[in-house]
Amino acid sequence: MENVVIQHNILYALGHQKTQSSEHYFPEHALGIMLSGESYYFSNDGTFVMREGTICLMRKNELFKKLKKAGPNGEPPSLICIFLDQKSLLQYAAENDVPKQSGYKGHAMIDLTGNVFLKGFFDSLLPYVDHPSKLTAKLAELKTREAIELLLQSGDVYRKLLFDFQEPHKMDLETYMNHNFKYNIPLSSFAKLAGRSLSTFKRDFTKIFETSPEKWLQQKRLEQAHYLISKRSMRPSEVYLEVGFENLSHFSFAFKKTFGLTPTELIEQNRSEIAN
Protein backbone atom coordinates (compact mmCIF):
# COMPACT_ATOMS: atom_id res chain seq x y z
CA MET A 1 0.00 0.00 0.00
CA GLU A 2 1.20 3.51 -0.82
CA ASN A 3 2.66 5.44 2.12
CA VAL A 4 1.37 9.01 2.10
CA VAL A 5 2.36 11.71 4.60
CA ILE A 6 0.54 15.05 4.47
CA GLN A 7 1.76 17.90 6.67
CA HIS A 8 -0.33 21.04 6.20
CA ASN A 9 -0.38 21.56 2.40
CA ILE A 10 2.75 19.51 1.64
CA LEU A 11 2.50 15.86 0.60
CA TYR A 12 5.09 13.09 0.42
CA ALA A 13 4.09 9.82 -1.25
CA LEU A 14 6.11 6.59 -1.43
CA GLY A 15 4.67 3.73 -3.46
CA HIS A 16 5.79 0.14 -3.88
CA GLN A 17 7.49 -1.59 -6.76
CA LYS A 18 4.30 -2.95 -8.32
CA THR A 19 2.47 -0.87 -10.91
CA GLN A 20 -0.26 1.23 -9.27
CA SER A 21 -3.19 2.89 -10.98
CA SER A 22 -5.39 5.59 -9.51
CA GLU A 23 -7.59 8.55 -10.41
CA HIS A 24 -7.32 12.05 -9.13
CA TYR A 25 -9.01 15.40 -9.00
CA PHE A 26 -7.17 18.23 -7.25
CA PRO A 27 -9.27 21.28 -6.29
CA GLU A 28 -6.02 23.27 -5.86
CA HIS A 29 -2.91 23.85 -7.97
CA ALA A 30 -0.15 21.32 -7.26
CA LEU A 31 3.61 21.74 -7.70
CA GLY A 32 5.64 18.55 -7.39
CA ILE A 33 8.89 16.74 -8.11
CA MET A 34 9.38 13.05 -8.85
CA LEU A 35 12.07 11.72 -6.49
CA SER A 36 12.23 8.20 -7.90
CA GLY A 37 10.29 5.84 -10.13
CA GLU A 38 7.87 6.99 -12.81
CA SER A 39 4.34 8.42 -12.98
CA TYR A 40 2.16 8.59 -16.09
CA TYR A 41 -0.71 11.11 -16.09
CA PHE A 42 -3.52 10.58 -18.59
CA SER A 43 -6.05 13.34 -19.18
CA ASN A 44 -8.16 14.72 -22.00
CA ASP A 45 -5.17 16.93 -22.83
CA GLY A 46 -2.94 13.91 -23.48
CA THR A 47 -0.22 12.08 -21.53
CA PHE A 48 2.39 13.63 -19.24
CA VAL A 49 5.28 11.50 -17.93
CA MET A 50 7.19 12.26 -14.73
CA ARG A 51 10.50 10.49 -14.20
CA GLU A 52 13.15 10.99 -11.53
CA GLY A 53 13.92 14.72 -11.33
CA THR A 54 10.85 15.89 -13.27
CA ILE A 55 9.24 19.02 -11.81
CA CYS A 56 5.65 19.76 -12.78
CA LEU A 57 2.95 22.32 -12.03
CA MET A 58 -0.60 20.99 -12.36
CA ARG A 59 -3.57 23.30 -12.77
CA LYS A 60 -6.44 22.95 -10.30
CA ASN A 61 -9.69 21.20 -11.23
CA GLU A 62 -7.97 18.82 -13.64
CA LEU A 63 -9.24 15.25 -14.02
CA PHE A 64 -6.60 12.63 -14.71
CA LYS A 65 -5.71 8.98 -14.32
CA LYS A 66 -2.30 8.16 -12.90
CA LEU A 67 -0.15 5.09 -13.39
CA LYS A 68 2.86 4.72 -11.08
CA LYS A 69 5.75 2.39 -11.88
CA ALA A 70 9.08 1.47 -10.35
CA GLY A 71 12.14 3.07 -11.91
CA PRO A 72 14.57 1.31 -14.30
CA ASN A 73 16.55 -0.07 -11.34
CA GLY A 74 13.49 -1.15 -9.37
CA GLU A 75 13.29 1.90 -7.12
CA PRO A 76 9.71 2.54 -5.94
CA PRO A 77 7.90 5.69 -7.12
CA SER A 78 8.07 8.63 -4.70
CA LEU A 79 7.33 12.33 -4.93
CA ILE A 80 6.94 15.54 -2.96
CA CYS A 81 4.09 17.91 -3.78
CA ILE A 82 2.97 21.27 -2.41
CA PHE A 83 -0.61 22.45 -2.92
CA LEU A 84 -1.01 26.14 -3.69
CA ASP A 85 -4.45 26.69 -2.21
CA GLN A 86 -6.77 29.51 -3.21
CA LYS A 87 -6.76 31.07 0.27
CA SER A 88 -2.97 31.50 0.18
CA LEU A 89 -3.06 32.81 -3.39
CA LEU A 90 -5.82 35.32 -2.59
CA GLN A 91 -3.86 36.57 0.41
CA TYR A 92 -0.67 36.86 -1.65
CA ALA A 93 -2.54 38.73 -4.40
CA ALA A 94 -4.04 41.18 -1.91
CA GLU A 95 -0.71 41.89 -0.20
CA ASN A 96 1.19 42.31 -3.48
CA ASP A 97 -1.44 44.13 -5.56
CA VAL A 98 -1.72 41.30 -8.08
CA PRO A 99 -4.77 41.95 -10.28
CA LYS A 100 -7.29 39.19 -10.90
CA GLN A 101 -6.38 37.33 -14.07
CA SER A 102 -8.69 36.36 -16.92
CA GLY A 103 -9.42 32.69 -17.60
CA TYR A 104 -6.25 30.62 -18.04
CA LYS A 105 -6.34 28.68 -21.33
CA GLY A 106 -2.93 26.98 -21.34
CA HIS A 107 -1.77 23.44 -20.63
CA ALA A 108 -3.04 21.67 -17.52
CA MET A 109 0.44 20.32 -16.70
CA ILE A 110 3.58 22.43 -17.19
CA ASP A 111 7.05 20.90 -17.20
CA LEU A 112 9.48 22.90 -15.05
CA THR A 113 12.32 20.38 -15.02
CA GLY A 114 15.67 22.14 -15.11
CA ASN A 115 14.57 25.11 -13.03
CA VAL A 116 17.44 25.13 -10.52
CA PHE A 117 15.60 27.38 -8.08
CA LEU A 118 12.62 25.04 -7.88
CA LYS A 119 15.00 22.09 -7.56
CA GLY A 120 16.62 23.87 -4.61
CA PHE A 121 13.19 24.56 -3.15
CA PHE A 122 12.29 20.86 -3.15
CA ASP A 123 15.72 19.93 -1.78
CA SER A 124 14.88 22.17 1.20
CA LEU A 125 11.73 20.10 1.84
CA LEU A 126 13.50 16.73 1.95
CA PRO A 127 14.53 16.88 5.65
CA TYR A 128 10.85 17.19 6.62
CA VAL A 129 10.09 13.80 5.04
CA ASP A 130 11.77 12.08 7.98
CA HIS A 131 10.84 14.80 10.49
CA PRO A 132 7.31 15.96 9.54
CA SER A 133 6.64 17.43 12.98
CA LYS A 134 9.34 20.03 12.29
CA LEU A 135 7.24 21.45 9.45
CA THR A 136 5.12 23.88 11.45
CA ALA A 137 2.14 25.79 10.08
CA LYS A 138 4.29 28.93 9.91
CA LEU A 139 7.03 27.17 7.96
CA ALA A 140 4.45 25.66 5.58
CA GLU A 141 3.08 29.16 4.97
CA LEU A 142 6.56 30.49 4.24
CA LYS A 143 7.28 27.59 1.89
CA THR A 144 4.02 28.23 0.06
CA ARG A 145 4.96 31.88 -0.46
CA GLU A 146 8.43 30.85 -1.62
CA ALA A 147 6.91 28.50 -4.21
CA ILE A 148 4.62 31.26 -5.47
CA GLU A 149 7.53 33.70 -5.76
CA LEU A 150 9.68 31.20 -7.65
CA LEU A 151 6.88 30.43 -10.10
CA LEU A 152 6.23 34.12 -10.75
CA GLN A 153 9.93 34.59 -11.52
CA SER A 154 9.70 31.77 -14.07
CA GLY A 155 7.38 33.55 -16.52
CA ASP A 156 4.18 35.54 -17.01
CA VAL A 157 2.14 32.40 -17.75
CA TYR A 158 2.32 31.41 -14.07
CA ARG A 159 0.70 34.67 -12.99
CA LYS A 160 -2.20 33.91 -15.34
CA LEU A 161 -2.52 30.35 -14.02
CA LEU A 162 -2.14 30.97 -10.29
CA PHE A 163 -4.33 34.05 -10.00
CA ASP A 164 -7.23 32.91 -12.18
CA PHE A 165 -9.85 32.64 -9.45
CA GLN A 166 -12.80 31.93 -11.69
CA GLU A 167 -14.96 29.00 -10.70
CA PRO A 168 -15.78 26.41 -13.38
CA HIS A 169 -18.52 27.90 -15.56
CA LYS A 170 -21.79 26.14 -16.27
CA MET A 171 -21.09 24.00 -19.30
CA ASP A 172 -22.96 21.70 -21.65
CA LEU A 173 -23.60 18.75 -19.35
CA GLU A 174 -24.17 16.12 -22.05
CA THR A 175 -20.87 16.89 -23.78
CA TYR A 176 -18.99 17.14 -20.49
CA MET A 177 -20.19 13.79 -19.14
CA ASN A 178 -19.60 11.96 -22.41
CA HIS A 179 -16.00 13.20 -22.33
CA ASN A 180 -15.37 12.42 -18.65
CA PHE A 181 -17.50 9.43 -17.61
CA LYS A 182 -14.40 7.22 -17.25
CA TYR A 183 -13.11 9.20 -14.26
CA ASN A 184 -14.17 7.59 -11.00
CA ILE A 185 -14.76 10.67 -8.86
CA PRO A 186 -17.67 11.60 -6.55
CA LEU A 187 -20.80 13.14 -8.09
CA SER A 188 -20.10 16.29 -6.05
CA SER A 189 -16.81 16.71 -7.97
CA PHE A 190 -18.53 16.17 -11.32
CA ALA A 191 -21.08 18.79 -10.27
CA LYS A 192 -18.44 21.38 -9.31
CA LEU A 193 -16.43 20.88 -12.48
CA ALA A 194 -19.61 21.22 -14.55
CA GLY A 195 -20.35 24.53 -12.79
CA ARG A 196 -23.35 23.37 -10.76
CA SER A 197 -24.45 22.60 -7.24
CA LEU A 198 -24.98 18.90 -6.59
CA SER A 199 -28.77 19.25 -6.57
CA THR A 200 -28.77 21.24 -9.84
CA PHE A 201 -26.39 18.74 -11.39
CA LYS A 202 -28.69 15.81 -10.56
CA ARG A 203 -31.75 17.68 -11.79
CA ASP A 204 -30.11 18.74 -15.08
CA PHE A 205 -28.65 15.27 -15.54
CA THR A 206 -32.01 13.51 -15.17
CA LYS A 207 -33.61 15.97 -17.58
CA ILE A 208 -30.95 15.33 -20.25
CA PHE A 209 -30.28 11.60 -19.87
CA GLU A 210 -33.66 10.51 -18.44
CA THR A 211 -31.99 8.45 -15.73
CA SER A 212 -29.92 9.00 -12.59
CA PRO A 213 -26.19 9.84 -12.80
CA GLU A 214 -25.29 6.60 -10.98
CA LYS A 215 -27.19 4.37 -13.41
CA TRP A 216 -25.98 6.25 -16.47
CA LEU A 217 -22.33 6.17 -15.38
CA GLN A 218 -22.38 2.42 -14.77
CA GLN A 219 -24.11 1.69 -18.08
CA LYS A 220 -21.80 4.00 -20.04
CA ARG A 221 -18.70 2.46 -18.46
CA LEU A 222 -19.94 -1.08 -19.15
CA GLU A 223 -20.68 -0.25 -22.79
CA GLN A 224 -17.19 1.18 -23.19
CA ALA A 225 -15.71 -1.90 -21.53
CA HIS A 226 -17.65 -4.19 -23.88
CA TYR A 227 -16.27 -2.27 -26.85
CA LEU A 228 -12.66 -2.37 -25.59
CA ILE A 229 -12.82 -6.11 -24.91
CA SER A 230 -14.71 -7.18 -28.04
CA LYS A 231 -13.25 -4.73 -30.58
CA ARG A 232 -9.87 -3.77 -29.15
CA SER A 233 -8.99 -7.18 -27.62
CA MET A 234 -8.10 -5.65 -24.25
CA ARG A 235 -7.94 -7.84 -21.15
CA PRO A 236 -10.50 -7.37 -18.35
CA SER A 237 -7.65 -6.55 -15.94
CA GLU A 238 -6.72 -3.62 -18.21
CA VAL A 239 -10.25 -2.46 -18.90
CA TYR A 240 -11.92 -2.13 -15.50
CA LEU A 241 -9.69 0.74 -14.32
CA GLU A 242 -9.67 2.34 -17.76
CA VAL A 243 -13.46 2.77 -17.72
CA GLY A 244 -13.79 3.87 -14.09
CA PHE A 245 -14.47 0.77 -11.95
CA GLU A 246 -12.70 0.43 -8.61
CA ASN A 247 -12.17 -3.34 -8.54
CA LEU A 248 -12.22 -6.25 -10.95
CA SER A 249 -14.77 -8.41 -9.11
CA HIS A 250 -17.42 -5.66 -9.04
CA PHE A 251 -16.75 -4.93 -12.70
CA SER A 252 -17.15 -8.62 -13.69
CA PHE A 253 -20.39 -8.95 -11.68
CA ALA A 254 -21.93 -5.82 -13.24
CA PHE A 255 -20.74 -6.83 -16.70
CA LYS A 256 -22.41 -10.25 -16.51
CA LYS A 257 -25.61 -8.77 -15.10
CA THR A 258 -25.80 -6.39 -18.09
CA PHE A 259 -24.56 -8.55 -20.97
CA GLY A 260 -25.30 -12.06 -19.73
CA LEU A 261 -21.70 -13.23 -19.67
CA THR A 262 -18.48 -12.31 -17.88
CA PRO A 263 -15.70 -10.37 -19.61
CA THR A 264 -13.66 -13.60 -19.81
CA GLU A 265 -16.59 -15.43 -21.38
CA LEU A 266 -16.93 -12.64 -23.94
CA ILE A 267 -13.29 -13.09 -24.91
CA GLU A 268 -13.79 -16.85 -25.29
CA GLN A 269 -16.93 -16.27 -27.36
CA ASN A 270 -15.07 -13.91 -29.68
CA ARG A 271 -12.25 -16.42 -30.12
CA SER A 272 -14.74 -19.17 -30.94
CA GLU A 273 -16.47 -17.01 -33.53
CA ILE A 274 -13.14 -16.12 -35.17
CA ALA A 275 -12.09 -19.78 -35.23
CA ASN A 276 -15.33 -20.81 -36.91
From TrEMBL:
SUPFAM superfamilies in UniProt: Homeodomain-like, Regulatory protein AraC
UniProt keyword terms in alphabetical order: Cytoplasm, DNA-binding, Transcription, Transcription regulation
PROSITE patterns named in the record: HTH_ARAC_FAMILY_2
Record's keyword annotation contains Membrane: no
Coiled-coil residues: none
Domain HTH araC/xylS-type: 171-269
A molecular function (GO) term: sequence-specific DNA binding
PANTHER family in the record: HTH-TYPE TRANSCRIPTIONAL ACTIVATOR RHAS, HTH-TYPE TRANSCRIPTIONAL ACTIVATOR RHAS-RELATED
Name of the protein in its database record: AraC family transcriptional regulator
Organism from which the protein derives: Dyadobacter chenwenxiniae
